[in-house]
Structures are given as C-alpha cells and as structure tokens.
C-alpha cells in the first residue's frame, strides 16, 4: 500500500470499476435528469435506469486515465463551444513542455478553473496537472471518485484534532513536492480555500504554509523557487453562480447561518458547466522568483501577479457604473458597457433587494485590484 493511496488520483487499474459504479449512482443520475438534457426520458417511469444504461454504454470500454481524459477533453471542449462566446488564452509561451510547474490560481468556478487550464495544456502538447481539491467538496463517495478520475488529489480539511489535521496537510505537502520534483508532474492549486465569492482574489499565506510543510527546514523562498511557481488568473464575463454566491455572502454579512442544501455543491458544478459565461480569458504568468523568507511576502507577491494577469470584462466595468464608482482606465465602448449593464440589471431582478449590492460587488471588485 502506498502512503498516498488515501489522497492520490486514481490509477489505470481503478478506472473501469469506478466508472461502472458511477454509472449507477443515483446522485449523478438525478443531476443529469435535472439538467433537462433528456426531457423525453425524464418523463418515463424508468428514466433513471435508462440514463444509467446510457452512461455505462458510453464508458464501459474506458480502461485508463488517458482514455478517460480523452473523453473529458471532449466534454470540456463542448462546454466551451456551447456556453462560452470566446475563450482566449495568453502566456502559454511562458511554459516548457519538458518541465513541471506549480500553478497557483485564482478560483471562481469549482471545476472549470482547472479544467480550462488543462484543456489548454493538452491542446498545446503539455501534460495535464494533478489538481488539488478540498475534501469539503467530497462528502459523498461519488464526488471523490469523479475528481480522482480526473487527476485530482485530496487536501483534507475535516474537523479533526490538530495532530490529525497536521498529518493530513503534511501528506498533501509531500504529495505536491513528490509530484513536482520526482515525477515531473505539474500541480494546480487555488490561491486560497474556496472560490472567490466577492470578486476579490488574494493568496492566503496558509496555502503556502501547507505546501512548505514537508520542506520546512528550507527557507520558504528557496523551497518555492525549486517548485517553479506559475501564477494563473481566469476571468469570466458572466458567472452562472453569481446569484448563489450573492445569497451566501449576504446571509453571512447579516450573521445568518448559511447551510448548504444537500446537493448544492453538485448543483453549483452543474450550473457552472451549463450556464452561459460570455467571454472567458485564461492568463498564464511567468515562473516567479521569491526573494523573501516570509509567507506573507510570498503571498503578497502571488496576489499582485495574479491580479495583474486578470483580464477585465464589460460586466466588471458595468457593475462599477451601476454603483456610481469611477472606472479605472475603461477598456470598453459605451455600447458594450450598456449591454453589460442590461444583463446585470436582469440578474438583479432575480434576487431580493438586500442581496443586490453583493451581486454587483462580485463583478465590480474584479475591476479594482489590491
């Protein structure tokens, strides 16, 4: 037994059985039915059985991670074609196909942030990344299975004793270091725990502390420089989950306890995938050079680089206009901003008045960098 078995991505010999199990998982079947992709089947009394059979027929011959990722690439390409107007990328020339990188990214969508990076890497002849995912998203076995099939590894954030939490984080740190320095496999990790729900992107020093755990005898700047850290910034013109994010941060702001519905994360994943996103841009930075032996300084450098890479959209500037904020060097025409304002005003009508400022700030905060 390998010490990383509890957190590592799945391997080829585990693929087929896992896919068979997932094909008959009720949570996945219900989610597919909820998307209304198969409206006629949904009306039938044996709809779940039909969906399960259809799924199994599609995946029954997949025997390896590469074959699974070939299918997944097609799915992500279809998402781009059907829910994104223009998907653009900058900075791919900063990477070397023979090297591994620690990609540290802002985080807006549960699955698409890393998926769009990996789609870009594959199409340009690079290997895909091992993707860090918190176990707060993996309360159900099916969720863990889906993530680990697609080269995700688990960072355990459960409520345990301090000793157990330390052991879990140390194991994740070891896995990250081993992947990068021994196996030449790149890593994707978000700059902080959880998505940015208010449009503010910042790097949490605790993420760097976790990465550094297994090398704590080495200065943090030397350790990070050895891992070839590359900042990533992704921006969505329209966020399909903006209403749900506004509700959460509104309730949190008035000291109301926010309890997620049982399938809320799954619904967020589904909405993020199927919802219209307008234009999306992925910015890939250059390998960073960390000069200070300090977590806070290193985090500040990452925050600055990620924010500088962020590409604003018309919705970002339109949200500022609606709130009466001055624009920082506007990049869009009056017509583009007016169209974006019309879109945002339509979204505002879908939430109660108290939530509306929080909806707008998701977009306007992205226009003002720390």
Strands of the biggest beta sheet: in what spatial order?
A: 1-7-6-2-5-3-4
**How large is the count of helical segments?**
16
For the secondary structure, the number of strands is 7
Q: At CATH's second level, what is the architecture of the largest domain?
A: 3-Layer(aba) Sandwich
N to C succession of SSEs: HHHHHEEHEHEHEHHEHHEHHHH
Q: What does this 3D model show about the protein?
A:
By secondary structure, the protein is an alpha/beta fold. The chain has 2 domains: 61-238 and 276-310, 3-Layer(aba) Sandwich (Glycerol-3-phosphate (1)-acyltransferase); 242-260 and 312-370, no CATH class. 50% of the residues lie in helices and 9% in strands. Strands 1-7-6-2-5-3-4 form a 7-stranded mixed beta sheet, with helices on both faces. Helix 7 links the parallel strand 3 (130-134) and strand 4. It is globular and about 60 Å long. The N and C termini lie far apart (46 Å). 37% of the residues are buried. The mean pLDDT is 91.
């Amino acid at each position: 037994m390998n010490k990383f078995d509890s957190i590592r991505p799945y391997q080829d010999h585990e693929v087929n059985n896992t896919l068979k199990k997932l094909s008959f998982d009720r949570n996945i079947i219900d989610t597919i039915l909820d998307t209304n992709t198969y409206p006629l089947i949904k009306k039938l009394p044996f709809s779940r059985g039909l969906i399960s059979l259809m799924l199994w027929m599609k995946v029954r011959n997949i025997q390896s991670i590469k074959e699974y990722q070939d299918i997944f690439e097609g799915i992500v390409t279809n998402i781009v074609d059907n829910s994104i107007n223009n998907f653009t990328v900058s900075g791919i020339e900063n990477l070397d196909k023979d090297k591994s990188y620690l990609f540290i990214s802002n985080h807006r969508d549960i699955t698409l942030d890393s998926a769009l990076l990996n789609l870009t890497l594959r199409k340009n002849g690079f290997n895909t990344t091992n993707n860090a995912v918190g176990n707060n998203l993996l309360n159900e076995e099916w969720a863990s299975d889906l993530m680990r099939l697609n080269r995700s590894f688990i960072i355990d954030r459960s409520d345990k004793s301090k000793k157990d939490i330390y052991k879990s984080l140390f194991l994740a740190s070891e896995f990250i270091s081993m992947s990068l320095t021994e196996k030449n496999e790149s890593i994707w990790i978000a700059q902080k725990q959880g998505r940015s729900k208010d449009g503010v992107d910042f790097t949490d020093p605790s993420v760097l502390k976790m990465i550094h755990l297994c090398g704590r005898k080495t200065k943090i700047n030397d350790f990070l420089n050895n891992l070839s850290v590359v900042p990533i910034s992704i921006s969505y013109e329209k966020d399909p989950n903006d209403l749900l994010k506004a509700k959460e941060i509104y309730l949190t702001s008035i000291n109301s306890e926010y309890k997620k519905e049982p399938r809320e994360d799954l619904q967020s994943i589904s909405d993020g995938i199927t919802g219209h996103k307008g234009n999306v841009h992925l910015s890939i930075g250059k390998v960073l050079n960390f000069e200070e032996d300090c977590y806070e300084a290193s985090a500040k450098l990452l925050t600055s680089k990620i924010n500088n890479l962020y590409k604003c959209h018309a919705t970002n500037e339109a949200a500022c206009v609606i709130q009466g904020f001055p624009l920082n060097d506007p990049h869009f025409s009056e017509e583009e901003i007016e169209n974006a304002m019309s879109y945002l005003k339509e979204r505002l009508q879908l939430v109660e008045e108290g939530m509306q400022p929080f909806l707008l700030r998701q977009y306007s905060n992205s226009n003002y960098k720390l």
